[in-house]
């Protein structure tokens, strides 16, 4: 292998191997002892020391050779920065690592052994004999033939290299805790202990605008290394005492500008803390001599706010015999300054995440009714992902004792997707409550999404209403049937009372606003849902798996929901379904599930008649309904009102409609529902009549005697419904 590959074409493997070519120990010797090395060459490779600012190079290379059992066969870690790292031939490589890193690093070593593919340039910590840690850049290379095993290169990272690597790595997460931990781990290269404390407002996502020192409250966000700390010392999650927050904030505020400070010894630290034993125990790590550098996390204040804003404080502790040099302090300030921007972005993301989550929680279904039981689970994406998505699910009662079940998904994440989701959800509810069928509602939503945004605008904002999916199902507890229409959403799953299950597929249709597709009407699909049936609505986050097809995910869901028994608590069952199907670890997409168990309306509480459209039909309807109302034990006043309303509705159907008249009465607790359907298209409207008008008074009677009334459109015409107190 060419030890000096060109920087423009060489792979990381080639570059690391080339750098190691002259440095790997030969036959148990070190490079410094190699008799073939030119005089003085090994001196040119050694820096003057890890913490020095002189002209010598800081970046020091070491190498460890391992056999297939991951035991050390030879090594070269005699350079100054590796001082205190104890290496013995025959020992396992894991002895060099902090306990928490052993499983991950061991897995990487074994993977390189198996695949013979290098694992290059990962930041890693090594243990020193005195308990401190050394930050290195570690590469794992397969040993060059004919040898077997591995070569592990270790670069004691130069401060500038470490600064660049840390600033790059810290910005990869939008989780506040992880961002703070990454910063603390990076700061550990300059000291023995690193801590990050953040203002309360950062945790809650609020805007940090308060400058008054006495109002600054800090909470410990990260502390490294992870070890057993003395009682009383602040660890992650602990709130700093108010006095400690005030003192730290005041210490770094000089000339009303936040600046880094260095306190050179323990005595000065204790004086800064007013010699308060409680504050000293809370902030000073242990009882040994220490010095500390305090660097504030600062961002520019919003427009109209004077001066910068302090988001929190970082502390780097080390032994006083290693004083902080000016160059080191500048490096620390640069790293913390770059991190402050990421902390503020994480704060803003946290606020947006909380706002979207509150909106979506608001849209979750409330309790069901005596005809249908509903349970839902919503699991948002983890905060450091792209942001909460546009998944939504809802259920609500409709006139005529029916219930609507709606599920949808807006493309993208964040507040824009949530706003579009909220608008579509509310519009769907309004249209369904106004009497439109599922297919007609989807047609209106299809028009709405084209008005919300266009493809360029939406995708540039991280979301797009165009291409949103939605599935609407309306359950009729009297007929025990469901009418469904689907716009590009995954098919619901129906579990029958006997335990069998099937996916309910409607005629295919693209998502909402898909103008590029052939425009087709939204067809409606009707199917039976007898009492005891379970209807399952969900979004793709529940069934998607990168390693399997979406059909496999739906089959897994079908198998799981078949295990939900009629006597199971439905909310607990929904949680079990999600726990069994949701991917482990971080969620990259929202998970939404709605279970609806159909109970139906008892036959003795309903009655349906189909009557011819004749002049005597109203009288016939009163004759049929009167004994039924008596059996339902309605009051005399309620019975008279119901018969009068029924008579007026039937009269209007005969007069203005065509074809047969369908009459349906339903008793739901203390409420009576009366519905009269015909094949006409005209919509009855309540209007203010003149004193001498002969017509138009029937709807005024209905309006006065009922709690509410309206019109529902059907495939054959319309149905006018009214509700009364029984």
Global mean pLDDT: 79
* Helix coverage percent: 25-40%
Number of strand elements: 27
Biggest sheet overview: 5 strands, antiparallel
What would a concise description of this structure say?
The chain is of the alpha+beta class. Helix content is 31%, strand content 26%.
For the structure shown, list the relevant keywords.
alpha+beta; five-stranded antiparallel beta sheet; 31% helix; disordered N terminus; 726 residues
List the helices and strands and how they pair.
Blueprint: H1 12-20, H2 41-45, E1 60-66, E2 72-76, H3 102-115, E3 119-127, E4 133-142, E5 150-156, H4 159-170, H5 176-187, E6 193-199, H6 200-204, E7 218-224, H7 242-252, E8 253-254, E9 257-258, E10 261-263, H8 266-272, H9 277-283, E11 291-300, E12 308-318, H10 326-363, E13 372-379, E14 389-398, E15 402-413, H11 415-433, H12 438-452, H13 455-460, E16 463-476, E17 481-487, E18 493-495, E19 501-503, E20 525-528, E21 534-538, H14 550-561, H15 570-581, E22 591-598, E23 606-611, H16 617-631, H17 636-656, E24 661-668, E25 671-678, H18 698-705, E26 708-713, E27 718-725
Antiparallel strand pairs: 1-2, 1-5, 3-4, 4-5, 6-7, 6-12, 8-9, 10-11, 11-12, 13-22, 14-15, 15-16, 16-17, 17-20, 18-19, 18-21, 21-22, 23-24, 24-25, 25-27, 26-27
Helix pairs in contact: 4-5, 4-10, 5-10, 10-11, 11-12, 14-15, 16-17, 17-18
């Amino acid at each position: 292998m060419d030890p000096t590959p060109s920087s423009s074409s060489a792979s990381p493997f080639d570059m690391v191997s080339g750098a190691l070519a002259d440095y790997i120990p030969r036959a148990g010797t070190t490079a410094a002892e190699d008799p073939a090395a030119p005089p003085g060459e090994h001196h040119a490779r050694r820096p003057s020391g890890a913490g020095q600012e002189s002209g010598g190079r800081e970046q020091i290379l070491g190498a460890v050779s391992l056999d297939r059992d991951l035991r050390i066969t030879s090594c070269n870690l005699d350079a100054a920065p590796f001082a205190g790292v104890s290496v013995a031939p025959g020992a396992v490589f894991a002895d060099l690592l902090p306990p928490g890193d052993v499983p991950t690093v061991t897995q990487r070593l074994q993977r390189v052994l198996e695949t013979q593919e290098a694992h290059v340039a990962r930041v890693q910590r090594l243990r020193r004999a005195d308990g401190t840690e050394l930050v290195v850049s570690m590469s794992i290379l397969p040993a060059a033939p004919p040898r077997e095993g591995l070569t592990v290169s270790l670069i004691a990272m130069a401060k500038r290299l470490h600064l660049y690597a840390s600033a790059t790595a810290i910005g990869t997460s939008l989780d506040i805790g992880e961002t703070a931990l990454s910063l603390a781990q990076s700061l550990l290269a300059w000291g023995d202990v690193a801590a990050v404390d953040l203002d309360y407002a950062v945790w809650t996502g609020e805007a940090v605008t308060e400058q008054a020192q006495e109002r600054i409250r800090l909470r410990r966000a990260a502390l490294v290394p992870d070890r057993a700390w003395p009682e009383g010392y602040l660890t992650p999650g602990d709130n700093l005492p108010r006095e400690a927050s005030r003192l730290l904030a005041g210490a770094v505020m000089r000339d009303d500008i936040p600046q880094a400070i260095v306190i050179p010894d323990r005595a000065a630290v204790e004086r800064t803390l007013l010699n308060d034993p409680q504050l000293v125990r809370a902030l000073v790590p242990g009882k040994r001599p220490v010095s500390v550098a305090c660097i504030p996390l600062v961002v520019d204040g919003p427009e109209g706010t004077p001066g910068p804003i302090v988001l929190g404080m970082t502390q780097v502790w080390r032994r006083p015999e290693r004083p902080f040099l000016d160059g080191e302090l500048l490096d620390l300030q640069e790293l913390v300054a770059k991190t402050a921007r990421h902390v503020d972005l994480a704060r803003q993301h946290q606020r947006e995440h909380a706002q979207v989550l509150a909106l979506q929680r608001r849209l979750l279904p409330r309790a069901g009714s005596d005809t249908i039981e509903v349970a839902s689970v919503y699991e948002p994406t983890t905060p450091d992902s792209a942001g909460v998505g546009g998944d939504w699910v809802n259920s609500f009662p409709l006139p005529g004792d029916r219930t609507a079940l709606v599920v949808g998904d807006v493309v993208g994440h964040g507040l824009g997707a949530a706003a579009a989701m909220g608008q579509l959800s509310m519009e769907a509810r309004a249209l369904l409550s106004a009497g439109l069928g599922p297919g007609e509602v989807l047609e209106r939503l299809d028009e709405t999404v084209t008005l919300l945004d266009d493809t360029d605008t939406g995708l540039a904002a991280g979301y797009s209403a165009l291409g949103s999916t939605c599935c609407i199902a309306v359950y009729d507890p009297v007929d025990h049937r469901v009418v469904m229409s689907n716009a590009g959403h995954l098919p619901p799953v129906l579990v029958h009372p006997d335990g069998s299950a099937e996916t309910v597929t409607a005629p295919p249709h693209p998502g909402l606003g898909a103008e590029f597709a052939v425009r087709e009407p939204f067809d409606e699909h009707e199917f039976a849902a007898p009492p005891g049936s379970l209807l399952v609505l969900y979004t793709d986050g529940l069934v998607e798996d990168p390693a399997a097809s979406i059909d496999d995910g739906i089959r897994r869901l079908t198998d799981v929901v078949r295990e939900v028994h009629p006597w199971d608590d439905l909310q607990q069952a929904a949680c079990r379904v999600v726990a069994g199907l949701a991917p482990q670890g971080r969620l990259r997409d929202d998970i939404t599930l709605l279970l609806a168990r159909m109970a139906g309306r008892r036959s003795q509480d309903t009655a349906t008649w189909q009557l011819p459209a004749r002049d005597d039909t109203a009288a016939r309807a009163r004759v049929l309904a009167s004994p039924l109302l008596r059996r339902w034990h309605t009051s005399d006043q309620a019975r008279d009102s119901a018969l009068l309303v029924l008579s007026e509705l039937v009269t209007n159907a005969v007069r203005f409609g065509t074809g047969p008249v369908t009459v349906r009465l339903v008793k739901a607790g203390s409420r009576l529902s009366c519905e009269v359907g015909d094949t006409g298209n005209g919509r009855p409207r309540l209007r203010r009549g003149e004193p001498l008008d002969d017509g138009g008074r029937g709807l005024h009677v209905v309006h006065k005697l009922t709690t509410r009334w309206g019109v529902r459109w059907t495939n054959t015409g319309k149905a006018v419904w009214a509700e009364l107190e029984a």
